[in-house]
Amino acid sequence: MKQANNILKNISQENIIIFFKKFSKKNIIILSALLISILWINYTLSNALNSNGLKLDSKITNHFMNKFKMVKTNSGGNIDWTMWGDRLEKFPNSPRSEVINPVMHINSTEIETWVIKAKHALDPDSLFNSIYLTEDVEFNKYDNNNNNEINVTTTEAVVYPDTEIIETTEFATITTPDSTTTGNGLIANMKSGQIKILSNAKRLSYTDKQSQELEGERMLYDLTKKTWVLLKKENQDDKMKIQERTKTILKTRKNREVK
User: Fold this and answer.
1) Over the stretch 14-24, which tens digit does the pLDDT of each residue have?
2) How distant, in Å, are the alpha carbons of 40, 136, 170 from that of 232?
3) For residue 95, which of 45, 131, 200, 225 sits 20 to 30 Å off, Cα-Cα?
4) CA-CA distance, 166 to 156, in Å (whole number)?
5) Hey, what domains does the chain have and what are their CATH numbers?
6) Could you report the per-residue pLDDT of 145-156, keeping only the tens digit for each?
């Protein structure tokens, strides 16, 4: 019995030694390469699952929605504003959203609506507290009979839906049923129904019988009274504040693109 055990033991030891000798000569390189490959694949997959490890272009959208519609309601369940457009885009490593061909309805009262349109919109934080509009910017005010009380066109503007303010430093044209007024820079308060031209204001009013021209540095239009009044010349604080607010919005996009 002891002899049989010794023989088996010797055979096992010899086989193990022979196996490792053959293995080390023929397969050690293959095994090492296979091990390295497995480790590399595991590392790559781990990085793929970790969004921080992705190096994505912040100028190229990675999430989008075509033909979308958004609705903002207040605490009473009433609709404050509605927005829709051809495309809503989100970008990697950035909180911003961009909208192609946005249209926005803001309900200033239960019976009065502002309709705002543009070719492009940028929201720096996707909260829709401030929206930077560019290209063919247009906003219209409609009364309870759906009559267009005023039309404003410009090249760019910032809309603040919660406070119902629209502002721009660019050249703007304001059209009412009986007048056309132009100027550089504008602040429109949708709640109060007042629109202020910040500089170089020129107004042409017309009736069936005659037309009149009025020029001044600044003008104010009151939608309730349907009247224009000249304002005293003041400093350019309004324009400077608008420019600073616009720069803050655009910084979000530029900073992300630089990175």
Assistant:
1) 555 555 555 55
2) 72, 30, 20
3) 45
4) 10
5) 2-53 (no CATH), 63-255 (2.60.450.10)
6) 888 999 999 999
